Structure formats: C-alpha cells, structure tokens
Amino acid sequence: MPETLLSVENLSTVFTLPGRALLAKSARLTAVSDVSFCLEEGETLGIVGESGCGKSTLGRSILRLIEPTEGRVVWQGRSLTALSKTEMRKARRDLSIIFQDPVASLDPRMNVGQIIEEPLKIAEPKLLRGERRKRVERVMDEVGLAPEMINRYPHEFSGGQAQRIGIARAIVTEPKLIVCDEPVSALDVSIQAQIVNLLKALKERMGLTLIFISHDLSVVRLVSDRILVLYLGRIVEIGPRQQVFQNPAHPYTQALLSAAPIPDPVVARSRERTALQGDPPSPINPPSGCGFRTRCPIAREDCAKDLPPLAKVDADHQVACLFWTEVRADPALAAG
Amino acid sequence: MSLYAGKRQALEEAFIERDDAIPRGKPRSVSRDALRRLRANKAAMTAIVIFALIVIAAIVGPHLVPYDFETPDWSAFTAPPSIESGHYFGTDQNGRDLLARTLYGTRVSLLVALIATTVSVVVGVLYGAIAGFAGGRVDSAMMRFVDVMYALPYILFVILLMVMFGRNVFLLFAAIGLLEWLTMARIVRGQTLSLKEKEFVEAARAGGVSNFAIILRHIVPNLVGPVVIYATLTIPEIVVTESFLSYLGFGVQEPLTSLGTLISEGAAALGAADWLLLFPGGVLIVMLLALAFIGDGLRDAFDPKDR
C-alpha cells in the first residue's frame, strides 16, 4: 500500500507588485490559488498548462523556494510551511529540483565536482573529502557522465550534458521527491528523449516521486501517472493520465489536447481542433467566477457567478467545470 | 515487481544512453579563459610589463641607488641630471638625489593606492553584495546611506580625517579607501541584483545553502570580473587623489615623499630646474597610462561580449 508522501492543502502564492506611483496601491498577482492535491510514494504527477499559469510557481512554492502566502505543504506528516528556516534547510535533502535552463542552473565559476557536491556537503557534513568525491563520481556515472569530467567547467558541456549534471546534483543527496521544472524544454528533441528516459530509469531505480512540470503534453504523457491541469493558478482538472488524456472533462483540457501536435499527418488532418482564441486573462485582475469563461466555447451566464468547485468525475478524477457532464457526453460541443 | 529483476535492470542499463564525450584540452575555468584572452592582448601585456618594472624599481630601486632620499649632497644643490656625478635625475634645492626620491615616492604612492584600493574593494563588495542580495527595504536603506555619503563633499571628509589621524599617511589613506568604496558598492549591488535571479542561486537554495554562504560562494566569485576591472581603475584614482592632496599640502609630509609631493615641489621650480617636475611627472604619467591599459585589457578579457 503506497503511502501519501506529500499533500498540498489550499496552497496560494500571491506576489505583491510594486505600485507605479509613489503612493499607488500595489497590485497583487495571484500566481497559485487554492491548490490542493496529494502525492503517493513512487508516483509521477505531471503539471501542465500554458506559460504564465503558475506551474513553476507551484513547484517552487511546494519546495518553499518561493514562500507560499496561504495553505500548507505536508511532507510525510510534517508541515513544511511551519518549519523554521534552519529546519527547512535540513529538510531539503529529501526534496530536490531540476531546472529548465541547464546551463544557467550551474554556477559558471565552479567545476562539476564542486557543483554536484554542494548539496551533499550540507546534507552530510561529516562525510570525508575522499568519500564525498567517490559519491560524486558514482552519481556522475549513474546519470551517464564520465567521472573524468569532474574537473571541467559548465560552459564546456553541451546542453544535454549540462542537464545531466543538474540531475546528478539533484539526486546526490538521495532525495525522495524531485520537482522537475520543464527539465527538457530547453533541449534538442533527440536529447529530450535521452533525458526523459534517464529520469524514468532513475525514478525506478531510486524509488523517486516526481512532480513533472511541462507545457509539452507528449513528454508529460510519457512520464506521468497522474495529470494536473492548471489555468490561472487554479486546478481545472486532475486525474489519472489515461482518463485525462482520453476522456478529458474540462473544455480547457480538451483544447490543450487538441492543440498538441500529432506526429502522424493523416491523423492530424482528420481530427477536430479547438483553437483557443486570445491570451489567458491577467492574473492581476482575473475574471469573476470561472477563470476560463472568457475563452470557453461553452461559457454561460452561470459561469460568471461563482468559482466552479472541483467535482468528482470518479474516485480520483476531479474537474472544475459546472457543465462537465455535457463536455464529457459530447466532446464536439467544446470543439464547437 | 521483483520478477525478472535482473533482466529488467539489464534492459534499463541498455536504455540509458550515456553522454560522456569529454571536452578536449585542459579544463577551462572562467578565469583561465580570461587570462588567455588577456595574454593575447598586446597593449595590455606591454602595460603589465611596464607596470611590473615600475613596481620592481619602486621596491628594490632605493637600495641600489648610492644616495638616499633624505640626506643632502653638500656638493650638489639643484644640480641638473648628469651621469658623471651619479645624480642621474639631478638633485633638488636641498641637494637630495631626485632619482632616489622619485623611486621612494613611487613606492609610497603605490603603497597608499594599494591600501586604499584593498579597503575599498573589501568594504564595497561585501556592502554591495549584501544590499543587492537582501533586496527590498534593507537594500533601499543601505543604498540611501551610500547616496548620502556621495553627497557629502570629499574634501571636507579629508580635512576631518586629517584632524583625526594627524600625520599618519597610511591611516589617512585607509580612511580614503573607506570613502572610495561607494562606487564599488553600487557596481557590485547592480551585478548582484541580476546574479541572484540566476537559477544556480536557486539551485543552491534548494540544496539548503544558507544565504550568507550563497553570497560568499556563488555571488562574490561571479563578481570577480567587474570588481577586478574597477579595482584597477581605482588604483590610478587614488594615486591622483594622493598627488592632489599632497600638492595641497595635506598628504605625505617631509622628509617622506610621494609622487604628488615631488610634482608639487617641481612645479614651484619650473623654469629654474625643470627636471624636478619632468622626472616624477613622467613616472606618474607612464604609471597611470599603464594602469589604464591594464584595466581596459582586463575588461575585454572578462567580458568579451561588451567590446
């Protein structure tokens, strides 16, 4: 019976933007709003959404790299959000992150060995120098890098190699959870496959739990067990991968899926597509009621009144749409 | 899941493609790359050689010259430069050998510049990095303090410090260093603001590194380029400040001398004994030019993009 590793409860992250004039009221940008979900040990949760929908902020808020404004993050029964800064630093050895830009995430003044060993020094300060170096070399080997590279500097590597260094740094403390923030979107497609396979293999081998943030549905589909769809910082749909991909219940999910490219031109030409019009509304001034109603093909008057609650489609599939039964019954309605 | 564990693992191993093409040559750190570019810059390398010669002359020169900087030669007052008498640069009105005085003055000027620059770099880098990294109100308060310091007239400070430190030139210049750090702090703060948004800083935080350690291990090393460049430009500034203050009579006191004092004395004797101005003035100009070229070369070496 897999146990709940992480539960996120009503998490909100609000940024206060500086006012333009001296005494102007500062604007508030709600990047993540009232997000709750649970994560079981060993599963991979894919977080998808357009750029600016709060995916990265959510990932960083869970790790408290950005302080969440409201809500709790409970890690193995302990509330991370209640920990002091020092305690949080200790807890970080179990939590890790992989970044989007592989080169920018490596300090150009440090060599590979120094980069990878940095979190290890903090997690296990008693480790002797030689042992630490051995650990670093072993981890490098595990991510498919030659241990002889240990004295090299980040700018000497290709993007794929740099991302492997980032992954090595993320796993060197043997964490349980890794937040992967668009780990492959800055890489060439051929390299993307390598890195995705590497992450999957590491996950199997080390029993990792992953939060996989991406806007690339085909990548998310490949790695995730469950999918969380975010729009304007809110969950619009969350459920098992099969269900979300094959039988989406929210018009936004449908639109996202229909916008994803299909590698087969025959299939691609024959399918119906719902192109969303315009950009998402500003998170500084979100629309009343359902955030998606300004772009939703089936929006009605009721949608502007209240926030649609998360309704249960079945046991672990939830959707935030008042009319999800209709969407489900007639996908063409949303495709309209 | 344990069924076929061995086979699964073998498959998996085969599945992970390795990417271990090792880059060629020796490992190239950022500083090593910069040095390589600097070495290719002829003007800067020439300037470094000239500056090194001046430094060496200032350190060992006074011991090699047969005359010392304060004892008069009773047989030669205001003697023009001549090879026979051994006064290659001539003597001043008190019969002191100008070559010895110039070498000694260069030594004092350089020492003073070194002290003041070191103080300004240490204070400026730490202050700027802390302000930039802390951000928000702390940053505003710290930078407003810098603005206030900027607004106060420099010479007023110098006079106050003169009263406090009296004749101790070295303490005086350590104090001048404490004024010179303002620009350094601004430069460093600006750089820190952009550095702290970089993902590697976030990665360090995710690894549990404390803020202070992040500043020392990630921010400060990445500031080396701009700091080194600005420091090489501070040295001539301090040399000029020292000359200016000595010219006004605030700086180095007799019989100790510095380039500025020598120039001030030489200027008074212009027309009667031109060499008293020409030799120390020439050394100062060559030194300042060399430092300017070195600073330029370092800037090109550290940021090849902004040429």
At CATH's second level, what is the architecture of chain B? Answer: Orthogonal Bundle
CATH superfamily of chain B: MetI-like
Most extensive interface: A-B, 50 and 31 residues
User: Which sheet architecture does the biggest sheet of chain B show?
Assistant: none
Distance between the termini of chain B: 60 Å
Number of strand segments of chain A: 12
Q: Mean pLDDT of chain A, rounded to whole units?
A: 86
Net shape of chain B? elongated
Protein name (chain B): Oligopeptide transport system permease protein OppC
Keywords (chain B): Cell inner membrane, Cell membrane, Membrane, Peptide transport, Protein transport, Transmembrane, Transmembrane helix, Transport
Pfam families (chain B): BPD_transp_1, OppC_N
Family (chain B): Belongs to the binding-protein-dependent transport system permease family. OppBC subfamily.
Write up this protein.
The complex is a heterodimer of chains A (336) and B (307). Chain A has 336 residues and is α/β, with parallel strands linked by helices. Helices cover 33% and strands 22% of the residues of chain A. Chain A has helices at residues 55-62, 85-91, 112-123, 129-142, 159-171, 189-206, 217-223, 241-246, 251-259, 265-270, 324-329, 331-335; strands spanning 4-16, 28-40, 44-48, 70-75, 78-79, 95-98, 177-181, 209-213, 226-231, 234-240, 311-314, 317-319. In chain A, the strands form two sheets. Chain A has an eight-stranded mixed beta sheet with strand order 6-7-8-3-9-10-12-11, sandwiched between helices. Chain A has a four-stranded antiparallel beta sheet with strand order 2-1-4-5. Chain A is globular and about 65 Å long. Chain B is mainly α and 307 residues long. Helices cover 71% and strands 0% of the residues of chain B. Chain B contains twelve helices and no strands. In chain B, α3 (42-64) crosses α12 (275-302), α4 runs parallel beside α12 and α11 (259-268) runs antiparallel to α12. The model of chain B has no long low-confidence stretch (mean pLDDT 79). The interface between A and B is large, with 50 and 31 residues. Chain B: One of its GO terms (cellular component) is plasma membrane. Chain B: The chain crosses the membrane at residues 43-65, 108-133, 145-163, 169-188, 275-295. Chain B: It is a multi-pass membrane protein. Chain B: Belongs to the binding-protein-dependent transport system permease family. OppBC subfamily. Chain B: Pfam families: BPD_transp_1 (PF00528), OppC_N (PF12911). Chain A: Residues 6-257 form the ABC transporter domain.
